[in-house]
Amino acid sequence: MHAVILAGGKGVRLRPYTTALPKPLVPIGDQHAILDIVLRQLAAGGFTSCTLAIGHLGHIISAYVGDGSRWGLAIDYATEESPLGTIGPLLAIRDRLPDTFLVMNGDILTDLDYRDVLRTHRASDTPLTISTYAREVNIDFGVLTADGGRVVAFTEKPSIDYRVSMGVYALSRKTLEGYPQGLPLGFDELVLDLLRKGELPHAYEFDGYWLDIGRPDDYDRANAEFTTYRSLLLKGA
Predict the structure, then answer these.
(1) Helix (H) or strand (E) run with residue 31 in it
(2) Which domains does the chain have, with CATH numbers?
């Protein structure tokens, strides 16, 4: 089983923490970087190899990770000279990827079963599997529905339930065919292309622990919660 970890972003939203460190290497708790936790989880889940897509401050990541032997993983690198989006880095290494593989952001904390995501994707016979998470937004106002200048419905302080992408995907290599190398390609563009072609992605629903460390508030929360969730995040690792 192979995973590609996207670790090339500048982490602008997480500044000042990412001024000198790439986001995947910011520390969580007293002895782990985010990337260390992710690599431990992948190894514990049975993954044997991994590609790190690096860019901004990538030399620090490669110096920290090396060949991956510390985690029992065979790790190689894909370096992007300019930002290529979520899917763009995969196009340059398409020929060395297996038929199916995991793709994930390098800045998330979750107890998601990565092995099961990939297994489910292989069984689904779909071009893409997206791990999804339930979110709820509470509206603090009365919501009106108007039609032709008249109010036709009213809901007092409703809540809206929806599912979001977790930043963890399983992908088939053939899904990347037809896209040129070297050009940026976002995850949103790929999904919209698949929908237009009627090739519907599979949704892998997950309701465990998930935190996307994109902002300083998220990072502070991750550190505050790590002691509580450490055994969950590092089970078997």
Answers:
(1) none
(2) 2-134+161-233 (3.90.550.10)
